[in-house]
Structures are given as C-alpha cells and as structure tokens.
Design goal:
The protein has helices spanning 2-21, 25-35, 40-64, 70-92, 96-120, 134-151, 155-166, 171-197, 204-217, 221-227, 230-252, 258-287. With 296 residues, it is mainly α. α2 (25-35) packs across α5, α2 (25-35) runs parallel beside α11 (230-252) and α4 (70-92) runs parallel beside α6 (134-151). The chain crosses the membrane at residues 32-60, 72-94, 100-120, 132-155, 175-197, 204-225, 258-276.
C-alpha cells in the first residue's frame, strides 16, 4: 500500500507539471521511477500504460473546452503511433545495463530542453489564420513518438515547443491537439511494450499508482496554468531531471565524485535563480503604473 501511494504521488506530480507546461508527464515520472530502481523499459512501459487513462481524460477535457484542432491531430497522431511502437520495440530488446545510460542521457537532454525553453527562451510569436502542414507534422510525430517510447517521455517536449515556435497554430490549440494525439502514441507504445516485455515483467502497482495520481491531477491543470509561473516551474522540473539523471549517468560510468555532484547542483541552483529573477522582473513590469502623457 505504501509503494502504491508513492507511485500515486509520482503520477500526481507528473500530471501537475504536464498540465502546467503542456509536457513532461513522461519525463518527470520516468525520471523518478528510474531513480527508485525501476528498470528503464519497465518504467517507460508503466508510464505509457498509465498514460492511456490520463491522456484520454486530458484529450476529452481539451475537446470540451474547444482546444483541439482535429486536422492537426489526424496528421500527427498516426506517425506518432508508428514512431512510438518502433521505439517501444527497440527499448524492450535492450538489456537493463545498456538501456539505463541511454535513457538517462535522453531524459537529461529533455530536461535541458525544458530549461532552455521555459527559463531562457523567448515567447513565440503566433500568426493567426495559419495551420501546420503534413510536411512538418508527419516527421515531427514520427520522431516525437520514437523519443517518447525510448525515453519514457518526450512527446510533449518534442512536439509542443516545435509547433508553438512555428507560429502556425495558437498555443492553446497546440497543447490541446498534442495532448489529444498523445492518446494514440501512448496506446501504440503500450502495445509495443506488452508484446516485447509481456505482462509478467510489469509491476501493476506502479501503473495503478501513476494512473490514479494522474487522473486526480488532470482537472487541476487549468488552475496551475492560471496561477503558477511557467519559468519557475520549468526551472524546478528541469533541475530535478538534471540532477537525478546526471546522478544515474555518473553511476553508470563509475564517475561519482563530490566535484561532479557539486557541478550538477551548482547548475541547478543557477537555473532556479534565473527563473526566480525572470518571474520577479515580469511581476515588476506588470505592476508598474502606466503613465499618461502630459496635456500640452
């Protein structure tokens, strides 16, 4: 029961992050699972099986709120499913020893991407009346699905920022459409893992905990988007991913040392400080009263 509660809290935290950033459920939950000793393939499989429920709930919510562009969903979901199935098949065939540094390195890169996007990145410019075409959506879905399955997460970090930065679709529609399409990639990855690993290799307490926590947190997404600072949340999440996966890589290559850990924590501290300053600068700019021009 205690273990189930821990995984439920992991799912709750991951879905809260995903609801705020439009990404990072898989990255956050996979990072925490691998850090607790769960094998990379099992962690990714568990996350994707749990996401079948959370993405369905998320997609339904976005559809009800009018956040879904179904033409975009159709063009990105099918390639995403193909890529996810292929990624799950590849990861299922790797040994735990060889998969651990690969997954940790991939998650580390995704964590750095989240930091760069939400802490140091500039807000994208949206051009109304445009929609991304198949030439962008098909390869993006294929790549995002493959990375998502092999890394235990990555669909959101790959697809959401790319589509938002393209300026071809409103950010609200991007998050809603990507979240809805993720249901297809999640089902495809889950099928791939079940065929490659078999149900006996999975810990259903992990899956049940992640699913329960994620479903509970899903309705809180709107509140988090409205009230939490994205730069600060992105900085905190990215820092956690950086530290946990950096530790895994150091252990994998027998390179653990006090200076190495000091570098990891120093980088994380800098990221958080920059995020806090960004939030304070934004709040200060918003609180400055507008000055009216003097009457001549």
């Amino acid at each position: 029961m205690e273990r189930l509660l821990i995984f439920a809290l992991v799912g709750l935290a991951a879905q809260a992050v995903d609801g705020s950033l439009g990404m990072a459920y898989g990255v956050t939950s996979s990072t925490l699972l691998v850090a607790t000793g769960v094998a990379p393939a099992v962690a990714s499989a568990s996350v994707h099986l749990a996401e079948v429920g959370t993405t369905l709930a998320s997609g339904f919510s976005h559809w009800k709120l009018g956040n879904v562009d179904w033409k975009v969903v159709a063009k990105i979901a099918i390639p995403g499913g193909i890529g996810a199935f292929a990624g799950a098949t590849v990861l299922s065939g790797l040994s735990t020893e060889s998969a651990t540094p690969w997954v940790a390195g991939l998650l580390l890169l995704l964590g750095l991407y989240i930091i760069a996007r939400f802490v140091f990145g500039k807000p994208p410019v949206f051009i109304p009346g445009r929609r991304p075409g198949l030439g962008l959506l098909a390869p993006l879905g294929l790549f995002g699905g493959f990375i998502d399955a092999t890394g235990g997460g990555g669909w959101g970090p790959v697809t959401t920022p790319t589509l938002i930065s393209s300026g071809t679709l409103h950010p609200r529609k991007v998050i809603g459409s990507v979240s809805t399409a993720e249901f297809v990639t999640t089902v495809a990855a889950s099928v791939g893992f079940l065929l490659g690993l078999g149900g006996e290799a999975l810990d259903w307490r992990v899956i049940a905990g992640l699913l329960a926590g994620g479903v509970i947190a899903a309705p809180l997404a709107a509140y988090l988007v409205k009230h939490l600072s994205l730069p600060l949340l992105g900085g905190l999440v990215g820092s956690i991913i950086l530290i946990t996966n950096g530790r895994t890589l150091l252990q994998s290559f027998d390179a653990e040392s006090v200076p190495a850990y000091g570098v990891l924590f120093a980088i994380a501290a800098v990221v958080v400080v920059v995020a806090v300053r960004n939030v304070r600068s934004k709040d200060a700019a918003a609180s400055e009263p507008e000055t009216e021009p003097a009457n001549l």
